[in-house]
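Re-running Sulfatase N-terminal domain-containing protein to confirm reproducibility after the cluster update. Everything else is unchanged from the original entry.
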Amino acid sequence: MATTTLTGFSVMSLLSLAYLSWDLMSPNQVENEPDPTFNVKSPVQQPPHIIFIMTDDQGFNDIGYHSSDIRTPVLDKLAADGVKLENYYVQPICTPSRSQLITGRYQIHTGLQHSIIRPRQPNCLPFDQVTLPQRLQQLGYSTHMVGKWHLGFYKKECLPTRRGFDTYLGSLTGSMDYYTYESCDGPRLCGFDLHEGESVSWRRRGKYSTHLYTQRVRKILAAHDPLSQPLFIFLSFQAVHTPLQCPQEYIYPYNELENFARRKYAAMVSSVDEAVRNITYALRKYGYYKNSILIFSTDNGGQPLSGGSNWPLRGRKGTYWEGGVRGLGFVHSPLLRKKRRVSKALVHITDWYPTLVGLAGGNESLTEGVDGYNVWEAISEGKESPRFEILHNIDPLYNHARTGSLQKGFGIWNTAIQASIRAGDWKLLTGDPGYGDWIPPPILPGFPREYWNLERHIKPSKSVWLFNVSGDPYERFDLSEQRPDVVKELLARLVYYNRTAVPVRYPSEDPQADPQLNGGAWGPWMGDEEEETWDYQKENMEWKRKLKMFKSRSIFRRLNTRMMSNRI
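Result of re-run:
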């Protein structure tokens, strides 16, 4: 049998073979070659190898076991043989989800509660935060990151290799071309964005990023000795974020999808499915699998304007409806005690920090002060989750709802402020949660953006919503008027959390960040010895003054469009 390239099986062969045994021949294994898995003695007492795979903008309905039009046989089988997390929450946009994974803290405790870190902002993950990879390094792990960072890079001290990763290959900004690695932050503000370690990796231009990142993970696995040191790999795919780009061979199986954006989007999901298949095989081939934990997670909800779907959930990426924050997630591992099941345990993305530190052998003192919980027993053994409550966010800078007031919040909370919290079965939203319609998967050949200006796309006439999301996961029945007692309790919880919040870190953009002033590539532009010249409290006051000026509907609409743009 002829060998194939490192990028793996073709899509058609993958779709037809994926449900067979996981002992199938690898793309690089010739016929009659002995399977090296059986020649490696599985480590017994060493902490587990941890592979965390995150996709970008993959919607709740964009995986085989939730969808009828996207085929992901590999992800489906891994999830079916592991534990599906069907009560799992992330954040509605990129930076917040990654920051909470890496720090185990809510956005209000890192100052990143507003929007994302934009390429020209002198901002990054706060330096006083001990990151998850730094903790794992302390516990003896070899740590590696591949893919999208999006946690700031204005100083070298912000880079992944300075925040706990031994090696890094990927992009620093929020989105880029999948082949040229060009990333733009507005007209004529474009630069190259592929980095290895702390250097620009010009020579890799032209390689499809999903394939490049997969190849990198396989090389890490091949070069490391699984018996000598536990391994942590954070694979943060660029896919399936815009732009919609994919090799043609992945698109052919979806020719029956009439909507062009959905067709390309589905093809990109299939390329990720193939990538995970090749990584899983490498775990077996090089002796990691029997002592490994593979975690799959999205970073936020899907964007229907770009082919994604969160159906039947309400809302989309960038909103605090379930379609923006209910994440795809599963855990696959031989170490799970109760496998092949669906978990309804409440899990939040901050929980991975204490969970993985605990699995690595760390004690509770290493996770003191984080907002996450160790949920391993809930996932592995089916026990009750230690988590009862999730603060989705409090964003004091987001457009204030004109219909909100302190009076409508019973004198407890100003309901003009965008905030959301879940406690038990109840979920409360205040302010403007974002676009809140239910959007079926696109099936028409075209999907003009003007469709969003139909009569249902209007500003909400209220500023408080309450749902029993256990019984009403699609958020169709607002119970805020029927249960004011619950509303008051959750508003009081928002007040409690808000008292612990740190000032928002959202500095003005720095013109010195222009890639053309830095050799044509995005990267650190401020020396580590330079003083940070902005004052966060001053920035917050300036933003509050600006908000008072935003009274016309056209300005609000432009701000919302910017928030939901492809730059996020």
